Amino acid sequence: MRIDAHHHVWDLDRNPQPWIREDLLNRTFAVEEYQAQMRRGGFDGSVLIQNLCDEAETVDMLALASANPWIVGVVGWIDLSADVDAAIARLRSCDGGDRLVAVRHQVQFEEDSDWLDRPAIRRGLERVGAHGLAFDAVIRPDQRASAVRAAREISGLNWILDHLGNPHGGRPDDGWEHAIVTLGGLPNVAAKVSGLGNLAGQGWTARSLRGVVRHALAAFGPDRLLFGSDWPVCLLSGDFTLAVTAAEEWFDDLPARAQAEIFGGSASRWYGLL
């Protein structure tokens, strides 16, 4: 099954998105619009990713997954510092609750570089793992060290590093390379090949980003890399087709089995998809 492991949709009338700063993204992106892109790209299913630190949005996303069986998983949001057990129980009781496969928090928006070291957050993450859910982490460069510590110490939780840990400008540097090697050495960590075009900016090509991708491949292997289009955010520096064709070029020299892992198999296993 070919799976896009990272995309978004939003309805601005129902769930305003205050994080949006770009006119291009300041409109509703409906699930039907994404589905058309997905089908043209040859994908069979997708994982829908939260946008807001708002449990109500996750409820809406689960309902979308219930109505659209090709959305095989939802990565939602809960307050990790509150009663995580109760929050997960609420979400699982909703329409589509069986599609909840992970929790995500935009750690990059937290001012604290060591937010993942906070005792309340650590307890919450441990409970996420106890419920069999993964955790998607999107971090800034200054948060890499705390992400390494948390992933190492909460070994019962599957961690999925969004956007390959956000290498600055889409270029490898010593700090990023070291963090990727360290995280790649932890068996409970996987990484998403997603969102890289926006890091590099307009005019990026598959060749210009090949260095960061191949470094991540060496660290994680194909069994722990997941492709994600990051649609519609990818429109800021390209489009869905460019995101897919670039990724296919990055891995076109790998055996077919390895390519199948990156484009679906890894997502199925790491998210425990239906």
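That was protein one. Protein two is written in the same sequence-then-structure order:
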Amino acid sequence: MSEREAQELVARADKRASSSTWLPFSSFSSTSKFEEAAELYTKAANIYKMAKRWKESGDTFCKAADMQLKMNDKDEAASSFINASKSYKKSSPQDAIATLEQAIIILTEKGRFQPAAKHKEDIASIYESELIDLEKAMMAYETAADWYAAESSTALSHKCMLKVGTFAAQLGHYDKAIEKFETVAHDNLDNQLMKWSLKEYFLKAGLCHIASGDTVSAHNAVGRYCEMDVTFSATRESQFLQSILSAVDNSDVNQFTTSVVEFDQLTKLDNWKTKILLEIKKSIGNETLI
């Protein structure tokens, strides 16, 4: 199959979609012509897809969706918009987002929030990885988290919440970050499979408390984490937070640096924690990198 064949199919579909309906039972005839046009557009879109003509594939899937909407076949239209987004993602992230949003409108109208959440998460991923827009990625992940929660998909909701917390902290929205990390930690207190993750969530929330500049709140938070999980006080993460807090309280840059180096030697600091720690270090009067 060639691109020429796809072009011919599109031309036939265009002609069929715009043809006049004069026969008896015109509503049936109108539906029939839109159905035929949608099938032709879909076939053409898949040929373009195989030829890696991503924009043409996405555009043609959208034409199929338009025909399906004219027939009030919203399920098929949503599928066509999703297929369009997959093609657009290869060439135009913004168009991929726009078509996913079209599918999401249909899905939410029909009360299908689980798949809607999945596609909202896909949008967030595009903002995160392709467009590098953390603010919009954060907002999309937050919506996905809410929709997953509404469908009792707790693990998926928490996964998106952690993304929100991560980006919120990077953007300086420490209160939002703290709320998300603490919520996920609280919800997993009795989950034995997630028990090992609690110290990570508490560490991230604690660092955000310190970075926000409210050391009283930070001290209270660390104490609260130790009450929530009796094993936390003995962890390196808890001891690290206490040491960082002490350095901030005493405006002791050397103590801060020593604490960070010692922790990093046994538990490698990732880029996110390093960035937050740099913000904390600046607050105690030294902007030199860790």
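Residues 22-28, 286-290 have pLDDT under 50 and may be disordered. Keep this in mind for the problem set.
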